[in-house]
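Shipment paperwork, digital attachment
Item: protein structure file
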Amino acid sequence: MSQATPITDAERKLRTVRYVRHPGPWHQPVPMENSLLAFVYDVPYFGACGVFPPIHLLNLELRRGGSQGGMSPGATWEPFELSPEEYRDLIEAVRTVPVESLRGRARYAHLAFTFDPAFDGPPETYPVRREPKRWDKHIPADYEAYVEWSGAVCAKHRERWHAELKRAGFLREGPPSTDLVPETAIDYEEVFRRGGRNLGDEGFTLFKCPSCGRVYLIDYEVYTVYLDAEDLSKRSDADPSLPRCVECRYEFRAAEPVIGPKADLKFGVTWADLSDSPWNWIAGREHEGG
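Attachment content:
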């Protein structure tokens, strides 16, 4: 744990957590040891739109042991849970420790967590509810409560949270999100029907060659690239690096991610790109956003 910023008494009271950072595709995992406070700010997508979870949902998340993140950053740990006393100490630290003091040790210490007790009870008491998604049937039963909570919280707080991130300089303006084909728009059932099933627990997204514009599908769970939209048996291993573009022989650099939050926009696939591609069957705007 870095000692560049002095650790306060409120943080010092908390347990130490050992875990593994997963930076994303083509980057090696990093073993970490942090205070519980720095840990919750280092886990991607922890909480919901800047709101900290109540104890029963926090423990549900901690017992799951995290995720490697697929094409996005992740974090994994040995499952554990907090006692009511530990939770109270953690809340006190969240409220009193300046979030900027954590930025050398935690990836997402942008703004301090806030609290909304209107969402601390059962879902039927929430002031707003999340919209059902087409993938809800795949949510593990023991995780439904957390998904319901996070979706409802963001339905209320998303616009405020994004506005605060922008004012603080942590959310950059980019092209309209509707220009790029989101991962949620991919029709998994059609991919499977055409023979694209891989090893189970597939995670699909699209990228393109920045030289010639050829579109590719990748299963980021096992780093497999699908080379031909008309024959999904034609695949290539993308670990440790992507193959050359089959059309123009462009050489993808191992140090330059083509998917995930650190990928350059030149690798992004727009709806116009997809429309002009043999992959135009793989996604539709009716699937966008779930």
